Amino acid sequence: MTLLELRDVTVTYRGTAGEVPAVRGVSLDLAAGQALGVAGESGSGKSTLAMALLRLLPRDARVSGEILLDGEDVLTMKWGRLRAVRWASASVVFQGAQHALNPVRRIEDQLAEPLLVHGLATPAAARRKVAELLEQVGMPAWRARGYPHELSGGQRQRVMIAMALACSPRLIIADEPTTALDVMIQAQVLALIRSLIAEHGIGMIMISHDLSVLASMCDRLAVMYAGRVVESGPSHEVFQDARHPYSRALAAAFPTVGDPASRMAPKGLGGDPPDPRHLPTGCSFHPRCQVSLPSCASREVELWPAGGGPAPHTAACVRVLPETAGAQGEHGEEPGAHGEEPGARGAVSGRPVEEVQ
Ligand SMILES: Nc1ncnc2c1ncn2[C@@H]1O[C@H](COP(=O)(O)OP(=O)(O)OP(=O)(O)O)[C@@H](O)[C@H]1O
């Protein structure tokens, strides 16, 4: 059953620095109980997309498209309904969220708050639930009486995960949930998140710049570049057999979890992501692409079937189009003659696909 459907979601910031098209026409689906990882470099639009899901964007952001949570469009929901949906249906764990705890309130009061605000428990039942939540995240119940400053960073992030679980949501949005933690604690917190979502059948959207972490945590991956999804498919396929050159570079830029050899020589990705206010023409990735074709400078390709397996796998690259597969690139990596690729028509050709996950 589909838990979350994004249809052509576009977010533009209209600030003093001009219009910033941060997210451009993203369509993705998430099945109930499934984990989807959204990867991309800094500035690719991941956090903007995550915030848009629960309308948490600043006032200068304009959002269009559809964000259907259990079939209801978050973007057109009345304010009262949106308040109920936040926490109770979907909750968020942000990067460095542990700093969001109020330093002068006891842990138990902060953990009980969403339950009491949403009328989901009496004060006595909320207290029992708090003890249960702390145990679920591997902390003793007596910690409830303490204050945030008595906890380590990892413990505070565990409290935030407990808070996200408090109202038994069907969806958790985790935006770089472990970035502020040291490596050992990161691994523990990631393992905790993985076991909790599996145990409770919670759907998750996890945002990270680290494709290897996402591949180890999620069923499917979507790779964003300059505000667009450029590849989407089963985690193992996207991580080990990426079809978009950007996803391949991103996968090579990080060591593989559990593979000491890859840790020795992670390959960097050259150049910088584009300024969204001044995107290159054609494919936004073409100035950094090692296998671009001449027409990539003027041609932006829609997501197109790219995987060999049974699960949907799509990539927005001219290389996956049947008429250009095998053509030689500007850098000469592919066999064949250099020059204009066969079938290039100066625009998106053929039938693009809707994302189905
Ligand atoms: N409030 C804002 N006003 C104007 N532009 C913004 C605002 N917030 C983000 N942006 C711009 O939108 C683009 C996408 O930013 P976003 O934070 O969503 O990317 P990201 O992939 O999450 O990056 P990071 O990993 O660094 O958080 C960037 O160019 C960013 O500068």
What does this molecule look like?
This protein is of the alpha/beta class and 357 residues long. 28% of the residues lie in helices and 21% in strands. It has helices spanning 46-53, 79-88, 107-117, 123-136, 153-165, 183-200, 211-217, 235-240, 245-253, 260-264; strands at residues 2-15, 18-31, 35-39, 61-69, 72-73, 90-93, 171-175, 203-208, 220-225, 228-234, 304-305, 314-315. The strands form 2 sheets. It has an 8-stranded mixed sheet, with helices on both faces. A 4-stranded antiparallel sheet has the order 2-1-4-5, with helices on one face. β7, α6 (183-200) and β8 form a beta-alpha-beta unit. The protein is elongated and about 70 Å long. It binds adenosine-5'-triphosphate. Adenosine-5'-triphosphate binds next to β1, β2 and α1. Residues 322-357 are annotated as: Disordered.
Which secondary-structure class do the elements indicate? alpha/beta
Largest sheet: 8 strands, mixed
**What is the approximate shape?**
elongated
Strand runs, count: 12
Instruction: Name the poorly predicted regions.
Output: 262-266, 334-357
Radius of gyration: 22 Å
Helix content: 25-40%
Q: Number of helical runs? A: 10
Give the N-terminus to C-terminus distance in angstroms: 11 Å
The overall average pLDDT, rounded, is: 85
Key features?
10 helices; 28% helix; 12 strands; binds adenosine-5'-triphosphate; 357 residues; 8-stranded mixed β-sheet; alpha/beta; 4-stranded antiparallel β-sheet
